[in-house]
Design brief:
Length: about 325
């Protein structure tokens, strides 16, 4: 089961060939991008059955694209090298803003808890507390997430560092940016003193139920949790052929639904990628992450005593509040 999955089809190589590839309208295969935060090795095995079923349903080959980072996924969609995919909230927002994309569905946590939390983890038994981390004396090695990661970067910046007028680059001896899985293993193994992560990534590792997974989780503890973050969106390009979008939507919204043996088989596949059957959504799903982003910008502007930036952030929050009130 992989929910935020990492890399290595070489995002740079894919983007380098953008000018040589066929336009999406002429490309027969569908390319589904998978958000990158954990290892591709296990991701491929977990996603392959779902993508194979999608291919059968729409009558076209479906290929997975595992980007080397969130920016690679956004740029791949921007240059029409991918058609749809599973994004984090922050990277999904960037895809909507920059890649002619829109939210059409969202994942549903198998635990029944709607959403997940960003966390800061330390090595169990180290005695390292949140107060010690926030002392900011440049003696600790800290791990952040991808810059476009909601839980790895945006949430801790918004809720932990910005309200205290702290910049991680000025707080720690070193700051390394990595995916959730790398941060987990680095803290567990003592390579990092503390790092950001999220409860979904830790739940994913727990479900693997291997000696390595159990030992890794036993060796870390959580010292900070964010407010709850909405589940991840699925986005597709707005310029996809309407007939293709209908086929994709029919497949995704019908997958795992019902009480037949086939639906049960599909739900087992979905559990591997850490979701129940997908539900319909639209761009209003991104309101909470936009609010988080604007709140962080407001705090930073106030800390800098930047009146213009503060007014801009307040205007953004007012617009978000209006959209929230109008959302279904």
């Amino acid at each position: 089961m992989n929910r935020r999955l990492i890399l290595a089809l070489g995002g740079a190589a894919l983007l380098a060939g953008c000018g040589q590839s066929q336009p999406a309208a002429e490309r027969r295969e569908i390319v589904f991008s998978i958000l990158s935060a954990e290892s591709q090795t296990s991701a491929e095995a977990d996603w392959a059955p779902f993508l194979a079923d999608m291919s059968k349903a729409v009558g076209r080959p479906v290929k997975a694209f595992y980007g080397s980072n969130y920016t690679a996924l956004i740029e791949a969609m921007r240059f029409r090298q991918t058609d749809l995919g599973w994004f984090t909230n922050q990277s999904g927002l960037e895809a909507v803003r920059r890649a002619n994309a829109e939210v059409f569905a969202r994942s549903v946590n198998p635990s029944g808890i709607d959403g997940y939390e960003a966390v800061v983890i330390v090595k169990a038994g180290s005695g390292l507390t949140l107060d010690r981390i926030l002392k900011c004396d440049r003696t600790l090695n800290f791990g952040m997430g991808d810059p476009k990661s909601t839980s790895g970067t945006l949430a801790p910046m918004t809720y932990l560092f910005a309200p205290r007028n702290l910049d991680p680059s000025n707080c720690f001896k070193t700051v390394r940016s990595a995916n959730h899985e790398t941060n987990l293993f680095s803290v567990s193994g003592g390579l990092l003193d503390a790092a950001t992560n999220n409860t979904a990534s830790m739940d994913r590792l727990k479900l693997l139920d291997t000696d390595v997974a159990r030992n890794t989780l036993k060796n870390v503890e959580i010292v900070w949790r964010s407010p709850r973050i909405p589940e991840d969106p699925l986005v597709w390009r707005k310029d996809l052929d309407p007939a293709l979008r209908k086929k994709l939507g029919d497949f995704i919204f019908g997958y795992g639904v019902g009480d037949t043996p086939e639906a049960a088989r599909q739900r087992a596949i979905l559990e591997k990628i850490q979701t129940k059957p997908f539900v319909a959504a639209d761009d209003s799903h991104l309101i909470p992450v936009r609010e988080m982003e604007a709140t962080g910008q407001l705090i930073e502007a106030r800390n800098r005593k930047d009146a213009a930036a503060e007014a801009k952030a307040q205007a953004a929050l007012a617009q978000i509040a209006k959209e929230r009130a109008a959302a279904p």
